[in-house]
Structure formats: C-alpha cells, structure tokens
Amino acid sequence: MTDTPYPLPPYAQALDMTIVDEIDGVPVIGMPFADRVQGRPGYLHGGAISGLLEIAAITAVHRALQAKGSDSAIKQVNVTVDFMRGGLNQMTYAVGEVTRLGRTMANVEARAWQDDRDKPIAMGYMHYLIKAKREDAA
Amino acid sequence: MAFGKPDLGSIVPKGTEFDPALVNKMMGKFGHGGFLDMEYVGHGADWVELAIDWREDLVADPDTGILASAVIISLMDNATSMSIWTKLGEFRPQVTMDLRIDYLRPSPSGERVYGRGICYHLTNSIGFVRGFAHNGNADEPLAHASGTFIRIGDRIS
C-alpha cells in the first residue's frame, strides 16, 4: 500500500468528494451539500447519495486489493441502496466495508451518514467482479 | 428554501393532471437532475423515459470512459419516481425506500443513456417500480432496476 490515496474518479471530483478521514485503514469519503447534489428542496438526491456510497465502496475494494498486493480491475455487477433518512443540507460521509474479497468477486457494504455514524442516511450493498489485469488477460 | 429550487408540490397542485415532460423541466434542470442534465424522452400510462448525455465528468473509470454507476441510479431514480405520478395521474410526495440496479453491461464511452421507469403496482402508501436503461435500443438493455417508493406526508415536502 502506498501513501498516495487512490485518485478519486472524475464523477467524484465533479461532486466535490474528497477523502476526509480513515476508519480502520479505509478512506472516509466526504461530500459537501450543494445544488448539484440536491433532490427535493433542502435534501440530497438519492442518486447523489448512491454516488457517494459507490465511491466509498470502490475505494474500499481498491484498498483491499492493494493490501493483497493485487492490481486487478473491478467491475460492478449490481447494487442495492436502502434510503433510511433524508440527507440534509450539510456534509455527508461514507465508508465502504469489504465483507468478503474472493478471487472472482467482492461483497461490499457502504454506509453514508451525516452527524452520527450509527444513524446512517443510506446503506449500499454491492457485488464487484474481480477482473485480471487487461495485460494478463490478453 | 435552499438554492431557490421551486417546490414540486406547489408546481403540481393536488388534482392537477401529472405531466412528466413539464415536471422534468424542474427535476431534470435543477439540483442533481440539472447537474446530470436529464432530458424527457417520452411516457405512457405507467412509464416515463428520461435520458442523460455521456460526459467526461460523469465517468467512474477514466481508462474506459464508463459512466459512474450512480449516474444510472440517478436516472432510474427520477424515471421510476415520475412513473408513479404518471400512473397515479397526479403528484404525491414520496421518497425512495430502496433501489436495486443490475448492470448487464457497461454504458460505452460517448453513448447517451436512456432510463425507462415503470410503475407496476401502486398502493395507498407504496409505489412498486422497475425499469431498465439502454443506449437507444430498448431491446438491448444495459441495466435493470427495481425498487419501492414510500409516500410521505405533505408536511415534509
């Protein structure tokens, strides 16, 4: 693992997401409230919350792969998002947890919260396919 | 009111026939829908189709140009949400309870992505939805969606 954080993708940068902290070695992604992430007035759009969960999940999988010395690429198979609370006009945080990392797939849970990590505003459950590097596959 | 976005409830008063094309001028042009620049494509009795153009800043993987998964979620969220009001024939305040997306294939770099949301069942409090995303040929979907919306009191929104 390097000290350089995994660079956040263009989509994450467009929504102003940054790595704000670490929990147990896994980056916490922060996303400030702004018009571009707003759904109904005063609340986050579910898709923007899902985006934060996605970035947290991807970051967690990359960290887990790095820790194993793997440079495999990943491909998302599916995601289920539960929306539990309205996202208010404030900073939102998310962290991903790789619940299982196998040779062919990874199960990931991502949690998004605002004031209290124990009161998530949304949870995401994702499956990723672990793909051999393109050069190896060729 | 934050950012001066008009309230959907006041734009579409109770008892007014729901017009997804009109409502998308708000949902697709302000806030997150505006950031994604969602466009109204068409609708039927129980479905609404919207579209988003590929853009470099919506990409999750710069090597492949594949759109972020959440762009599809946002598209399906808006399309399915509007399919409920379309089937109902009027607006009622609701929030997404859950949404599942299966990605059959990636949306290729540069390709416009369409999302069709279908409301297949409505109760007094829940809207059951499904839908799919494609790149212009509905017979070649790139993702399938299913989810539920829950009605909320007029007090919240």
Can you offer a commentary on this structure?
The complex is a heterodimer of chains A (138) and B (157). With 138 residues, chain A is of the alpha+beta class. Chain A has a single domain (10-137), classed as Thiol Ester Dehydrase, Chain A (Roll). Chain A has three helices and six strands, in the order αββαββββα. Chain A has helices at 10-14, 46-67, 134-137, and strands at residues 18-23, 26-31, 73-83, 92-101, 105-113, 122-131. Chain A has a six-stranded antiparallel beta sheet, with helices on one face. The two termini of chain A are 26 Å apart. Chain B is an alpha+beta fold and 157 residues long. Chain B has a single domain, classed as Thiol Ester Dehydrase, Chain A (Roll). Chain B contains four helices and eight strands, in the order H-H-H-E-E-E-E-H-E-E-E-E. Chain B has helices at 8-11, 20-27, 31-36, 69-88; strands spanning 39-43, 47-52, 59-61, 66-67, 94-103, 113-122, 126-134, 141-151. Chain B has a six-stranded antiparallel beta sheet. A two-stranded antiparallel sheet of chain B has the order 3-4. Chain B is globular. Residues 1-5 of chain B have low confidence and may be disordered. Classes of the chains: A alpha+beta (138), B alpha+beta (157). The A-B interface holds A 9-15, 35-42, 44-48, 50-51, 53-54, 58, 75-83, 86, 89 and B 1-3, 5-8, 30-36, 56-62, 67-71, 73-75, 77-78, 95-103, 106, 156-157.
What layout of secondary structure does this protein have?
The complex is a heterodimer of chains A (138) and B (157).
Chain A (H helix, E strand, L loop, with lengths): L9 H5 L3 E6 L2 E6 L14 H22 L5 E11 L8 E10 L3 E9 L8 E10 L2 H4 L1
Antiparallel strand pairs in A: 1-2, 2-4, 3-6, 4-5, 5-6
Chain B lengths: L7 H4 L8 H8 L3 H6 L2 E5 L3 E6 L6 E3 L4 E2 L1 H20 L5 E10 L9 E10 L3 E9 L6 E11 L6
Antiparallel strand pairs in B: 1-2, 2-6, 3-4, 5-8, 6-7, 7-8
